[in-house]
Amino acid sequence: MSVKITAVATQSPAFCKKTEEIIPLVQMWMHGKEERFQRKVTKLFEGAGVDKRFSIMDPADVFVQTSFEEKNNIYKKEAVKLANSAVTKALKKANLKATDLDYIITVSCTGIMIPSLDAYLINTFKMKQDIVRLPVTEMGCVAGVSGMIYAKNFLQSNPNKRAIVVSVEAPTATFQLDDYSMSNIVSAAIFGDGAAAVILSSYEKEEGPTITDEAMYHFYDTEYIMGFDLVNTGLKMILDKAVPDTIEAHFPEIIHPFLKKNNLEIKDVNNLIFHPGGKKIVQVIQELFGKYGKNIDVTKEILQEYGNMSSATVLFVLERFMDKKLDKGEKGIMLSFGPGFTAQRVLLEW
Hints:
Elements: E1 4-11, E2 15-18, H1 19-29, H2 35-46, E3 52-55, H3 59-62, H4 68-94, E4 103-107, H5 117-125, E5 132-136, H6 143-156, E6 162-169, H7 182-190, E7 194-201, E8 210-218, E9 226-231, E10 234-239, H8 243-261, E11 271-274, H9 279-290, H10 297-306, H11 313-323, E12 331-338, E13 342-349
Parallel strand pairs: 4-5, 4-6, 11-12
Antiparallel strand pairs: 1-7, 2-3, 6-7, 8-13, 9-10, 12-13
Helix pairs in contact: 1-2, 2-7, 4-5, 8-9, 10-11
């Protein structure tokens, strides 16, 4: 049973600032700190490879002392709005009604909602009352790909069904005002907020790239390098400087066996749909694939235009490839990394 991606839609929040507009706010936040430290942080923002980013709250309000409760309430309200817009766009692109969906998978790691986001979407869109729900809350940046893998596994066993994967992320809501660590600063420099929705189908006649394979790769003893600590002021970013080197060390095992299993080599795959974790990670991946004459230009474009939107980012990249109307037979590989540490892959054929 083949499973296809029939539509991808994205949605950005209302607030948007260029990095050059955010730097003065960062400098005010650092007032009183050592001058050398201030220059280092400013340079980090300027060199992060992010020209602008969207956010669920006015960037000026990010640098105001707020409680975890206040930030999470903003997250819940805005997450529902963003998800509604992304789902509406995806249904329109696929020419479907909400009642045509059989599975709903929602992914997010930047706030806490119980009931989860999918419950709100079911009520808003009056989806089927027997729709199967799966909220995924703790997989971080990799969850966009994870959600697609779960959807594919649901659909592969069930002909003539459809699933929607909805990702909403607001890293802005996790900024820690009293934390001057590099983890907090780097995450502020590279992250932005956004939402995306992907519709997948096991209907034979529906069009879109086919998911021909998928796999997860788990790195041993690396759970400490990425994630969140839940502290009194909210979700505190864990982002170890070892992340790019860890990815580089494992990269041959992540890519080559997966392609070989499908009788492919890197030269056979022209469409690289990668999660832009940050400038250093992008540089590592670009160097590794550049050896084979490949580029990750779209991944770099999304980082530049939106920043890292955690699990939603790779879906923004996917939308660009869906909009290209690629030729029949073209191959693509989706790749994302996240807490655990884990790398997850999806192989596509147009």
